[in-house]
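Checklist before submission:
- one chain only
- standard amino acids only
- sequence pasted in full

Submission:
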Amino acid sequence: MGLLAPWFLAGLGLLALPVYLHLLRRSRPDSKQFSSLMFFEPGRQAELRRRRLDYLALLAARLLLLALIILAFAQPVIRSSSVGAGSPALRLVVVDTSASMGFRGRMQEARRIAADLLTPQARLAAFDSRLRLLDRAELPRLEAGPAANSFGELARALRAFHDEQKQSVEVHLISDFQRSALAGGLAALQLPEGVALHVHPVAQRAEPNWTVESVRAPARVRHGREARIQAVIAGFRTSAAQKTAVLSVAGRDAARKAVEVPPEGRAIVEFDGPDLPYGFAECSVRIEPGDALASDDQFLFAIERTDPLALAWFGDRRAETYVRNALEAAAGGVFTLGGSAAWQQSRAVIAAGAMPAEAELAAAVRRGMGLLLVLSAADAARGRVPVTGQKITGSRYAARTGEGFYTASRTDPTSPLIEKAGAWQDVRFYQVLAVEPGEARVLASITDGTPLLLEQRVGEGTVLVLGSPLDGVANDFPLQPAFVPFVEQAARLLTGWEDSTVALPAGELLAAGSGGRALAFEVLDPRGRRALSFSESARGASVELDQTGFWRVLRGGGRDRVIAVNVDRRESDLEPIPEETLKLWPAAASAAGQGSGGAPPAKPLALWVLAAALAAALVEAVLASYYLGREAA
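Returned file contents:
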């Protein structure tokens, strides 16, 4: 047991106050009637005071009350015996396995230091994006991985480990202590009492390193030659150098270009579209010659060459021209607008004033077909929105006075139809059909609150409702910059189109639902082994992308994806934490434990002491009432 503020014990001197009050009692002389004092000689009568303690029980209650209040201010604590200072500390040897540890000789040195630190009772762990406990026999096979690390995340993992072990922990961290891993600063590195940190650096200075920092390429193309590829070559702590960028497609070198990289700078190299086969093409850009950190000298990506996704059109010819031109300008021709004859084979339908049999179309939407309804005068006369059934209460016409048009004053920025189109406020609407939204989500509305764009799920399909005709009279939307991206985003949403290929850094989690609408999917790792089954993803399980290479997400129905996983580029900057900062870290990490690492956690007792003081106050009040009542009697 101890005190956090022992200087408050000086207040114990106040205990003399109730003793003084109980010791000092004035005598009460008896008064008697007498006729005259003339026969008495003058004299001085001394007033005697009886000096003795009285009401001992009341005195004890008051002394106890004051003592407890003073003790509460001194903040008493008790040390838990479960992690006592005398209990032996568990040694945990943590080896950094992030990508930067693959630099020349660092991992070999880390394994040597770890072997020297491992006692028979010690535990071994590896850390990059998460902390993993290992068997001691795995140390000789320990290698640098592709993920980045964060010392803030390591501190969180060590706090959880300490809470689980219920004993003191002596942590030996072996790392190159990369500066980029200290993103949260020293404040995020504090460890609880009972954890002592010892650092063992394997890097003393910043090393030069070149990397393919990023690659920009389309996810899907209709023709292979349309795939323009742009790569960024970066140097960290480097001098000017000439590198060769090599584009590889399906395992074969397709193009080579020389590039001049400025000192500690970046250079951009562009490749013309290669001849891509149909389906998924696994591609990469690498630099030659390589350097001592080979894992970031190559950047993986994938491109899918696919037939265009068909959308069927029903309605006005002028509006069809607007939409067709927008689709041809967007997404590299991935979408095509067909006629109404074979609409059942299309992925989505756009209806502007005409449509097939409503019941048949509604059934197709419930099965997963997308539908964009551009309302017209015929729908206003009908009084309801086809398929979804919302009520149309009439048309709003902009007044001839004032501005003479409506604008989309309220929009939902979370929708890609608004976020990626932008500039809706510049569109002038002269006529808008008033639709009661019901269960639909309002994405845009005009000044008076009338919905302009609505989205609603119907079964497995999505329905978009645009409340203004595209006839070139009701608005100038087709002439505004926002129209082409709106049509593209609407086509993506209605067809379930998404980036079929994507590049992610190692260490990311792929969870159910992140692959689109499908509730279940299967994931194959770069070696072709099943990493996540359909049943596991349906239960909400996730898989860590812990290997570089091409991961495949299988969902069927033309919705498969390829994920290119690369070394996290935060690992490319090999500058270590400054030496003075590294010396401060162990002290800052264990500041809460006073740097001892063996002190047991303290449990405060102030509330219990205050509760006892309250009980003493109640006893004092009862005794004081009793004695006062007896004196009055």
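Reviewer check: The longest strand covers residues 252-261.
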